[in-house]
Design brief:
Organism: Flavobacterium anhuiense
Pfam family, one: HTH_17
Structural class: mainly alpha
Radius of gyration: 18 Å
Number of strands: 3
Largest sheet: 3 strands, antiparallel
CATH topology of the largest domain: Arc Repressor Mutant, subunit A
Distance between the termini: 45 Å
Order of helices and strands: HEHHEEHH
InterPro entries: HTH_17, SinI_DNA-bd
Number of domains: 2
CATH class of the largest domain: Mainly Alpha
Strand content: 5-15%
Strand order of the largest sheet: 1-3-2
Protein name: Transcriptional regulator, AlpA family
Oligomer: single chain
Helix content: 55-70%
Length: 112
């Protein structure tokens, strides 16, 4: 695990809060009987996640070690939530020039 800078703390705390909320939600749903871990179609193993995001299992394990990918760990097993993986992929989207241009124009207009 790499050392974190003070500037990284807001992002780290945000990520931790999101993960805790997801865990609490899953625990509530399991306790209420709404879902069981085996019956949840959004819950995926490393191999299933590998196929979904088209990365090797080894690459996924290395990303988990570096905290670069959203993961849930139960004992020695890793589980992935499909919606979180898809959101993680979307978060890496590169904006087009026209999107960047419109953002700049909106910021300039808001200053006036």
């Amino acid at each position: 695990m790499k050392p974190f800078a003070f500037e990284d703390l807001p992002d780290i705390l945000g990520t931790l809060a999101m993960r805790v909320e997801n865990i609490e939600r899953m625990v509530r749903e399991i306790k209420s009987g709404k879902i069981t871990p085996e019956a949840d179609p959004g819950l995926m193993t490393v191999i299933e996640a590998s196929k979904l995001i088209n990365l090797s299992v080894a690459t996924i394990y290395s990303k988990v070690c570096r905290n670069e990918i959203p993961v849930n760990k139960q004992g020695k097993k890793l589980y992935f939530i499909k919606s979180e993986l898809l959101e993680w992929i979307k978060s890496g989207r590169v904006k087009t020039i026209s999107e960047l241009r419109s953002e700049v124009e909106q910021r300039l207009k808001s200053r006036d």
